[in-house]
Amino acid sequence: MKPIILATSIDHLQDLIQKTIETEGFECDLNYIDVSQIWNMSHLFQDTHFNGDISKWDVSRVVTMREMFQGSTFNGDLSSWNVSKTHELFCAFDQSMFRGDISRWCINHDRYARLFDPVEAENFEEANIYHWFLALRGWPLTRPDWAQHVDGFAPMLDSLSVSKTQGALLM
Q: Measuring CA to CA, how many Å separate 163 from each of 4, 18, 90, 167?
């Protein structure tokens, strides 16, 4: 078992990730990296082949995950991540292979949680996103008003649990 290493900055984190991938490959275990002090994970795995284990990362202080996995092959377990303080998830999984269950994620701040490209409708069903609880603004909705304008999304989003939100874009 590797000793825990505290990532002190995004540059330090990227360096640790790169060195581990170089020695252990794209399916390496990165849980030895303590990311609890990192607030910005934007573009961290964008356009990479990383598909290792980061399931135990403490991301509770992360404010932005903008395009974090965009265009990546990552499909690991993120189900236990606490993203309640994350303010920006814009295109976090856009054009990625991610199909993991993040249905228990609670997004409290991101007014526009556009995680996926709208043409990738299957991501909603496969990632169980339509069961999300979004606590953003204060207006309970059964289905977002914008869903009726996006072909193919309306039936899938009928069971979406949206609370306290206005205009949350889950695409």
A: 38, 39, 19, 11
